[in-house]
Automatic annotation (TrEMBL):
It comes from the Eukaryota. Belongs to the DPCD family. This is Protein DPCD. Transmembrane segments: none annotated. It comes from Hemiselmis andersenii (Cryptophyte alga). Residues 69-88 are annotated as: Disordered. InterPro entries: DPCD.
Amino acid sequence: PQPAGNAKAMYHPGGKKTAIIAGGRKKVHTVWDLGFEQVEEYDATTDQLLLRKVRKEAAAGRPNKWEVEVGEDLQAGGGGGGDELIATSSDQPSIVRLDTKEAFQWRVRNMPYPKETYQVTADDEKNQVVIRTTNKKYFKRIDVPDLNRLGLRVEEGGISIAHANRTLVVSLKKPQKILELEAELRKERKSMKVSKEGDADCKQQ
């Protein structure tokens, strides 16, 4: 079925939400009857999304592992966003998604090559962002679950890149529909009853 035209339809309609402020972050935990669960962490001052992780209930009724979509889960020790084709180590490329208000954005660290080495395109068939280098040292496919959930396309014209300090920054302009939904979600968060650390526990594990 097509998502409904409201903020909660970013995943599924409805859902039980709880929120807590701890360590300078507003942590919002949502559970749906369908067995889908989400944790989001926002900067308590700027409301920037710092972490989003999701998981689905396994067939036996036990939860699956968390899948990180945005940011880095310090408890789990890693970020997410696609299939890495290079083994992870301290000097190997690593990718993390940290969005801005206007764009989806990925930062690929340990990328020492000149800016002209990088080719970033849209794969229309798989609806992915694709990063490759002309020297064939790096290749990465990136899913954008926000777009997939709403049936929206990755538009190559919305892709831009920047490179500095051995970090490649890939930005994808957010469609108007996403901007509208996120504006509704911001209003919802402002109106939520929020507990402070020590008053309640925002269940994450």
